[in-house]
Amino acid sequence: MPELPDVEIYRRRFERSTRGRRVEGVEARDSQVLVGVGGRRLDRDLRGVRFTGTQRRGKTLYGVTTDGPHLRLHFGMTGDLVVLDKGPCQGEPRHTRVVFGLSGGRRLLFVDQRRLGEVGVVQDVDADIADHDLGPDALDLAPPELASLLRKSQAGLKAFLVDQSQLAGLGNIYTDEILFQARLDPRTAAADVGDSGVRRLHRQLHRVVDRAVAAEADPQAMPRGWLIHRRDDGAACPRGNGSIRSFSVGGRRGYWCPGCQAGRH
DNA sequence: GGCAATGTTAGCCG
DNA sequence: TCGGCTAACATTGC
């Protein structure tokens, strides 16, 4: 779930659900996901505050307060943000790790099956972004900046796109989709992507992310022609251009269509 | 039981 | 120094 589109959905959900409400208390059910704070301090730091907005950099979400500390959320592999209003049938889902109690009986839940997510508090959002060495948000990159980052890199294209210090937000699944839509070979060197390749990459990055957000990051609601429905070795290419193959990058499995993408840059 | 799964990061090697 | 690879983190489901 949590790549840039998912986190953007969470960001909007966070903003909508906290607007006009105060934090009445924070309950850490599982201190494993807490980073740099204990449960007591998390509660003490946030009790009584109103969030004035949100900020997202790549896959990291911040709940911003007037004078800090600000809430920092990272969703790992299985993190989710759930809003529960008071009323019947409002039981907490399994794997609820942290509960933010809001005024009016609303609860905001950090749910994370695998517990690789992180909940913490930071004094300064920009300093935190620097600490984590996050590059510009993937959606904030104009084509010339993208071109310049690509040219400076010595990495392969797929490795470049998932590197959060180059551009923040893309992960395994959406980089595969963007490369497929842009008809770029994931094996080419980032620096070898030509002008037309950069333009296609930029356009498809935005198109894929925008449509994924519009689909509420639910793959079922994404276009039929997308690779996301064919992440299987030997699956048929959605364009009828042969079969999908997998490859390995940085310990994960990537998928591509040699018929559409091989040799293209 | 084995394996893989949307992320991050430390350690190793070339 | 950089990039690529592996393992580890923790949990679940096929």
Structural write-up:
This protein has 265 residues and is α+β, with helices and mostly antiparallel strands. It has two domains: 4-131, N-terminal domain of MutM-like DNA repair proteins, CATH 3.20.190; 143-261, Helicase, Ruva Protein, domain 3. It is built from eight helices and ten strands. It has helices at 4-18, 39-46, 125-131, 143-152, 157-162, 172-181, 195-214, 258-261, and strands at residues 23-28, 51-57, 60-65, 70-74, 79-84, 96-102, 107-112, 118-122, 245-249, 252-256. The strands form three sheets. Strands 1-6-7-5 form a four-stranded antiparallel β-sheet. Strands 2-3-4-8 form a four-stranded antiparallel β-sheet, sandwiched between helices. Strand 9 (245-249) and strand 10 (252-256) form a beta hairpin. Helix 1 (4-18) crosses helix 7 and helix 6 (172-181) crosses helix 7. The radius of gyration is 20 Å and the shape is globular. The model has no long low-confidence stretch (mean pLDDT 96). It binds a DNA duplex (14 and 14 nucleotides) through helix 6.
